[in-house]
Design a protein that fits this description.
By secondary structure, this protein is mainly beta. It contains two helices and 14 strands; from the N terminus they run αββββββββββββββα. It has one domain (about 1-150): Glucose Permease (Domain IIA) (Distorted Sandwich). Helix content is about 10%, strand content about 35%. It binds zinc ion.
C-alpha cells in the first residue's frame, strides 16, 4: 500500500505531460509484442516491447536528464521516474538535458532482440535494468509504460 502511495505521489510530481516514445507519430503502426510484466521462461519482463520498423525516430517521453548511455540503449531521469530505451540502431543524445519529445535515437534490433522493436521500461526511484527480472516488476518499482504514458496499443 505504501508503495502504491509512493507511485501516486511520484506520478503527480513528475515532470509532465508524457508523450509516447514515437512523439507526434503517436502509436501509429505500433503493436505490443510483449507486455509489461509478462512472465516468460527468462523471468518477468521489465518493460513493454513495441513493434516498430527499424530506423523509426524515438523521442524522450518527458523532459529529463540523460543518466546512462550505451551503444544501443539509454536511460533518462524524470524526477523520481526513470525511462530506459533498448535495442536502438542509433543513440543520438549525449549527457545533459532533454526536452519532452526531443529525438533521442532510432529504433533497431540491436542487442538481445528478436526483430525490430523498442523495449521501453519505466521505474520509480532506480534506473531500469535491461530485460527480465526474477521478481515481479511491480515489486521492484517498475511501472506499466502504457499506463503511465496513457497510450492504448493493439497487441500482436
Ligand atoms: Zn522487452
Amino acid at each position: 500500500m505504501m508503495f502504491l502511495v509512493a507511485i501516486a505521489i511520484a506520478l503527480t510530481s513528475a515532470p509532465g505531460p508524457w508523450t509516447t516514445p514515437f512523439g507526434s507519430q503517436g502509436a501509429w503502426g505500433v503493436a505490443v509484442s510483449r507486455d509489461f510484466a509478462a512472465r516468460t521462461p527468462r523471468g518477468w519482463h521489465t518493460g513493454i516491447d513495441l513493434v516498430t520498423p527499424c530506423g523509426t525516430p524515438l523521442v524522450a517521453v518527458a523532459a529529463g536528464e540523460v543518466v546512462a548511455l550505451g551503444r544501443d540503449s539509454l536511460t533518462l531521469r524524470h524526477g523520481e521516474i526513470y525511462s530506459r530505451y533498448d535495442h536502438l540502431s542509433l543513440v543520438e543524445v549525449r549527457r545533459g538535458s532533454v526536452a519532452r519529445g526531443q529525438r533521442i535515437g532510432l529504433s533497431g534490433r540491436h542487442g538481445d532482440a528478436d526483430g525490430c522493436h523498442l523495449h521501453l521500461a519505466l521505474r520509480l526511484g532506480l534506473p531500469p535494468e535491461v530485460g527480465y527480472t526474477g521478481e515481479h516488476p511491480l515489486e521492484l518499482g517498475y511501472l506499466s509504460p502504457a499506463s503511465v504514458l496513457g497510450i492504448a496499443l493493439p497487441h500482436r
